[in-house]
């Protein structure tokens, strides 16, 4: 076969090299790694360290372990309280401890958290009184804590709506010269809601310091992830909005804390929002009222037991000589104490004041509310007289 | 005194509020450089900079949800929905968060904000640009719902809305934007929760708000020829509602007609009629009647004049307020058919 001199020239590497360097891909730095970031094997064996991702300090990991153990015990206690009729309903986050605790550990106390109903464990890990956290689910109020004090929005049930609040709050804080970061939790199913996308887009356009943290626990009540998206992973939803994104093994506590710490630093440094998808698994049913056997195979759940985040961190810390039997027993005892205290306090019947129904509808009640309040007051007085 | 349009008065109210309170941020779709499709935010970006008045992505839930977060951080958002029907994507944010956050947090977290909505018809707009959406908001506890009918009220009510500790849905009657009147700004008219007698009269009370107020006033003027002296009450703030002024008027006149541009079924007019009837029964010489838009999706421009309550329909209904002590034959016919 003969070739013309021209063709030879065109094929030569020297002429193919462009005169100016190629501009980086417009998606550079936006796309997640092809595989979820992992720093520990499922059995707790450390994987080779990564230059781009500093490992969290070991004190932080010991603290993470402590809060995960206490958190898991809290979660079990809350589920038990539903059986005793003390809670109307409880959505468990068992199996998601690394995500629940890692997220709050990555934040400062003056940062803001925008949780969903799933985040009771995260909120207790943040130091909020568990009785106040459970107010919503006990049914004596909608939100037991003062959001302005604990810098935590009320637990949000209208799916994904909190994503835009986080963008607004974070932008408002930076507008006023404060370096607050907002972290919004969201589930895999809720990423299909419009407000997730509007939140990402607003945060990106306004460069708001928000971390969107998707806990992909594989189900939205009964609906599997395959019905929510055809994307390679939910972390790919950031690139379309110009938001850098990462995916992480959500049952690897070290990786979760490392990735979220980097995301928070990115936001705080003024680079705008960051999206993190954690691959995890909801070990319990959607709530105590749900029957997961109707839609998932018990073998699937069994397989995830081998990837337990608490055991994984314990094994890792033991391997490093940072945890021994005595320390493990001490944390377990603390968790028992925490649960016992919660049990006792939840056994007390909460006091509810019917007339408080009319408080805080508006800053000042309307004349119509004053009238209705009077009606209820009279009804109660008549009831009390009837009882007497 | 100067002659000015309602649009100008609203613009002045925004500018004065931004001047007085640096926490006030104005944003929405096309509100920046363009000044809004109705020019209500005209010049604000040039005057206050693009951090105080700015365009957002095209997403109404995003706009209102963003405002929730800004209010949580201590700012005072004033957002514009471009048109009534295009506020519907934001309804979840409005109903589930804006209206409820104070209550859900037992007063710990309030989200004062103003959601400005150009609303109602009469401008020959194509579909989705003319809805009377007040009932959705008024039916949502936790929202104040305000709608001006005069130029001075537009200024005063908007200033009060921005200063109010609660979220306010501020409904601006599009067809009144470019109607002008003598006005002295900065005006301070009656506060929230106060209805106003726009025209005193002795024979019957017409209760109206927003775009229906000029119709009611025109009808009252025309009614003089028929020998009726009609009083017109402008509700101004649908929430909080001023029962006292409305019932005092009806007790005086003994007859009441509620005029709304919105479709009547399950609407604010129905609520007002029920409240009047509950409070004025013994003073009434006739059932409380309503004149409302038809119970149809807002019609195409060439037919909107049939839909909108006009002076003739108002006067025809006034005629049915049992002036000669005989019951309306229509009620009797219906009764016998049943
Ligand atoms: C707007 C809205 N639609 C429906 C629901 C009912 N709902 C509550 S939780 C849930 C599933 C959400 O799944 P996901 O986002 O994956 O979060 P997870 O519960 O798994 O933590 C649904 C459909 C809701 N709360 N809000
Ligand atoms: Mg899920």
UniProtKB/TrEMBL annotation, chain A:
The source's domain of life comes to Bacteria
Q: Where is the composition biased (Pro residues)?
A: 45-55
- Cofactor(s) this protein requires: thiamine diphosphate
GO MF term list:
magnesium ion binding; oxidoreductase activity, acting on the aldehyde or oxo group of donors, disulfide as acceptor
Which stretches does the entry tag as region Disordered? 1-55
Q: Does the keyword Transferase apply?
A: no
Q: What is the protein name given in its UniProt record? A: Pyruvate dehydrogenase E1 component alpha subunit
Q: Which residues form the Dehydrogenase E1 component domain?
A: 65-341
The UniProt entry, under CDD domains, shows: TPP_E1_PDC_ADC_BCADC
Keyword Oxidoreductase assigned: yes
Q: Where is the signal peptide?
A: none
Biased-composition ranges for Low complexity? 18-28
Q: Which UniProt keywords apply?
A: Oxidoreductase, Pyruvate, Thiamine pyrophosphate
Single biological process term from Gene Ontology: branched-chain amino acid catabolic process
- Spell out the InterPro entries in the cross-references: Alpha-ketoacid_DH_E1_comp, DH_E1, PdhA/BkdA, THDP-binding
From TrEMBL, chain B:
Pfam families associated with the record = Transket_pyr (PF02779), Transketolase_C (PF02780)
- Key word Phosphoprotein present: no
The answer on whether this UniProt entry bears the keyword Ribonucleoprotein reads no
**Recorded GO MF terms:** magnesium ion binding; oxidoreductase activity
SMART domains according to UniProt: Transket_pyr (SM00861)
SUPFAM superfamilies named in the record: Thiamin diphosphate-binding fold (THDP-binding) (SSF52518), TK C-terminal domain-like (SSF52922)
Q: Which domain of life is it from?
A: Bacteria
Q: What is this protein called?
A: Pyruvate dehydrogenase E1 component beta subunit
Q: What organism is this sequence from?
A: Micromonospora matsumotoense
From the broadest rank down, the organism's phylogenetic lineage runs: Bacteria, Bacillati, Actinomycetota, Actinomycetes, Micromonosporales
């Amino acid at each position: 076969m003969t070739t013309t001199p021209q063709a030879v020239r065109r094929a030569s590497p020297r002429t193919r090299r462009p005169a100016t360097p190629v501009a980086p891909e417009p998606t550079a730095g936006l796309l997640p790694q092809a595989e979820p970031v992992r720093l520990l094997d499922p059995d707790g064996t450390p994987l080779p360290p990564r230059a781009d991702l500093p490992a969290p300090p070991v004190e932080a990991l010991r603290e993470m372990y402590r809060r995960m153990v206490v958190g898991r015990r809290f979660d079990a206690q809350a589920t038990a309280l539903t059986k005793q009729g003390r809670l109307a309903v409880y959505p468990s986050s068992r199996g998601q401890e690394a995500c629940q605790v890692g997220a709050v550990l990555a934040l400062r106390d003056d940062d803001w958290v925008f949780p969903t109903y799933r985040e009771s464990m995260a909120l207790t890990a943040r130091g909020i009184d568990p009785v106040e956290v459970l107010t919503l689910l006990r049914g004596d109020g909608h939100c037991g804590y003062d959001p302005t004090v604990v810098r935590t929005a009320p637990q949000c049930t209208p799916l994904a709506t909190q994503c835009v609040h986080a963008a607004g709050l974070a932008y408002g804080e930076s507008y006023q010269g404060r370096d607050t970061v907002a972290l919004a939790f969201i589930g895999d199913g809720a990423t299909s809601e419009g407000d997730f996308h509007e939140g990402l887009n607003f945060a990106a356009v306004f460069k708001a310091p928000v971390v969107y943290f998707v806990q992909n626990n594989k189900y939205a009540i009964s609906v599997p992830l395959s019905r929510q998206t055809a994307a390679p992973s939910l972390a790919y939803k950031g690139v379309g909005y110009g938001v850098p994104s990462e995916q992480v093994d959500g049952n690897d506590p070290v990786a979760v804390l490392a990735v979220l710490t980097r995301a928070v630093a990115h936001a705080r440094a003024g680079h705008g929002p960051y999206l993190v998808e954690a691959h995890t698994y909801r070990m319990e049913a959607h709530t105590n009222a749900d029957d997961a056997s109707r839609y998932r195979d018990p073998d699937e759940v069994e397989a995830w037991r081998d990837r337990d985040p608490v055991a994984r961190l314990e094994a890792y810390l033991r391997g490093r000589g940072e945890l021994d039997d005595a320390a493990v027993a001490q944390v377990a005892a603390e968790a028992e104490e925490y649960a016992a205290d919660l049990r006792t306090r939840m056994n007390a019947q909460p006091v509810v004041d019917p007339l408080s129904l009319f408080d805080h509808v508006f800053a000042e009640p309307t004349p119509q509310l004053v009238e209705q309040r009077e009606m209820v007051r009279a009804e109660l007085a008549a009831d009390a007289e009837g009882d007497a | 005194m100067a002659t000015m349009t309602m649009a100008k008065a609203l613009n002045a109210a925004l500018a004065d509020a931004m001047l007085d309170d640096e926490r006030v941020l104005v944003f929405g779709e096309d509100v920046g450089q363009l000044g809004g499709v109705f020019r209500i935010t005209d010049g604000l970006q040039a005057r206050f900079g693009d951090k105080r008045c700015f365009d957002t992505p095209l997403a109404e839930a995003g706009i209102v949800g963003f405002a929730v977060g800004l209010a949580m951080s201590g700012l005072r958002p004033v957002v514009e929905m471009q048109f009534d029907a295009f506020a519907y994507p934001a309804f979840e944010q409005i109903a589930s968060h804006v209206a409820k956050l104070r209550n859900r947090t037992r007063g710990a977290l309030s989200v004062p904000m103003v959601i400005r909505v150009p609303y109602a018809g009469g401008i020959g707009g194509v579909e989705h640009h003319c809805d009377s959406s007040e009932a959705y908001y008024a039916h949502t506890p936790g929202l104040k719902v305000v709608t001006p009918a005069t130029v001075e009220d537009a200024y005063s009510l908007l200033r009060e809305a921005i200063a109010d500790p609660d979220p306010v849905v501020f409904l601006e009657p599009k067809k009144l934007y470019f109607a002008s009147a003598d006005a002295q700004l900065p005006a301070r008219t009656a506060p929230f929760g106060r209805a106003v007698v726009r025209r005193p009269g002795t024979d019957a009370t017409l209760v109206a708000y927003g775009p229906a107020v000029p119709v009611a006033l025109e009808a009252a003027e025309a009614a003089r020829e028929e020998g009726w002296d009609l009083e017109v009450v402008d509700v101004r703030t649908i929430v909080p509602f001023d029962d006292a002024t409305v019932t005092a008027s009806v007790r005086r006149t003994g007859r009441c007609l509620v005029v709304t541009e919105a479709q009547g079924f399950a609407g604010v007019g129905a609520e007002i009629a029920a409240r009047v009837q509950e409070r004025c029964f013994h003073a009434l010489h006739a059932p409380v009647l309503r004149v409302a838009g038809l119970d149809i999706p807002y019609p195409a421009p060439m037919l909107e004049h049939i839909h909108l309550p006009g002076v003739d329909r108002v006067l025809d209904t006034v005629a049915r307020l049992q002036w000669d002590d005989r019951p309306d034959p229509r009620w009797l016919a219906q009764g016998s058919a049943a």
